[in-house]
Amino acid sequence: MIGQCGLIWQPWKNRQVLEIGYLFNRKYWHLGYAAEAAAACRDLALDRLQAEEVCCIIRDSNEPSQKTALGIGMKPQDGEVRHCRGQDMPHTRCVLSRRLREGQEA
């Protein structure tokens, strides 16, 4: 197994948001697997499940994951500090709405 990618409900600023989460074995980084899997989840969420939006919640220091989210059409929308592994870490929520995506494809 090279890793995992899927849709999950996540808490964000006192509400639940639909997130694409991806985690791959370091050996398989920078080979396009995360982008391919994330794009498939994006299409599932927006096209088949008719979700209004889908997002990725990413640590500010995680540039490869930010690049993946931007590469599948997401844009940074907002941020918050989350407490993880005993420390406060800034996170950014990158978002793609169905409405915006349809406008991009037109």
Automatic annotation (TrEMBL):
Residues 2-75 form the N-acetyltransferase domain. It comes from the Bacteria. GO terms for molecular function: acyltransferase activity, transferring groups other than amino-acyl groups. Pfam families: Acetyltransf_3. This is N-acetyltransferase domain-containing protein. It comes from Faecalibaculum rodentium.
